[in-house]
Amino acid sequence: MKRYTLFILMLLAVGGKAQESAEQWFDEANAAYNAGRYDSALMLYNRVAESELESVALYFNMGNAHYKLRDYPMAIYYYEKALKLDPSNDDARTNLAIANLAIVDKIEEVPQSFIAKGWDGLKHSLSGQQWTILSIVAFGLLLVSAFLFLRGQSMGLRKLGFFAGLLMLVVFALSVLFAAQLKQASSTEDQAIIMTPTVTVKSTPNEASVDLFVLHEGTKVEILDHADGWNKVRIANGSIGWLQAETMLAF
């Protein structure tokens, strides 16, 4: 159980009293967790979440509390929410892998190409906030490099400014792109965790349609489309079908 700062979470608060209450609830929840009172901890964590505040720390701790209560689907849900805010968080990734061992479905992912895997690995090596900070730093160094290139007193300084500027331009462009992509991903509910013990995936959004395959609680799906209370989903191995929206919790 880790004690994270609530600095980022507090930035999302809408008033001094809300900040004080959220921080107090968070501290009390951590104390309850450490004392083994996981139900009480969740009640307090939920108060923070219901205040429309969010942070990696909050979701990570909620995942831990659900795991201690052996509610593995909810634990997976909150670990996934933590990773959506910060894909580089190793603690959440490790605990998610442990929680996934407790569910029924063991679905092999479609292999990625070397380039796609490397691209995703680079993008997820930092959080959206960290990419934003890096873009600001890279832009500042780009200006310094441009100054050296234009005003350098020697050819060596001008060459340094030119090549350093090219490097900073690439870093700046990638940082802005990754920050934007992670920001969009964190604000879009295009994934979900199955919360019903057993569900049958259908060929169309209709109970009378053909049964395709069965999923169990805790399985992660990607939401592709919506229709009349149904979600079109894709699982890790690429299989696609329709499930009733009420069987899953989106994030």
Model description:
56% of the residues lie in helices and 14% in strands. With 251 residues, the protein is of the alpha+beta class. The chain folds into three domains: 7-100, Tetratricopeptide repeat domain (Serine Threonine Protein Phosphatase 5, Tetratricopeptide repeat); 114-186; 191-250, SH3 type barrels, CATH 2.30.30. The strands form two sheets. The protein has a five-stranded antiparallel β-sheet. The two termini are 23 Å apart.
Beta content comes to: 5-15%
Low-confidence stretches: 3-8, 10-14
CATH second-level architecture of the largest domain: Alpha Horseshoe
Q: How many independent structural domains? A: 3
Distance between the termini: 23 Å
Name of the CATH class of the largest domain = Mainly Alpha
CATH T-level fold name of the largest domain:
Serine Threonine Protein Phosphatase 5, Tetratricopeptide repeat
Descriptors:
single chain, 251 residues, alpha+beta, Serine Threonine Protein Phosphatase 5, Tetratricopeptide repeat, SH3 type barrels, 3 domains, five-stranded antiparallel β-sheet, two-stranded antiparallel sheet, 9 helices, 7 strands, 56% helix, globular, disordered N terminus
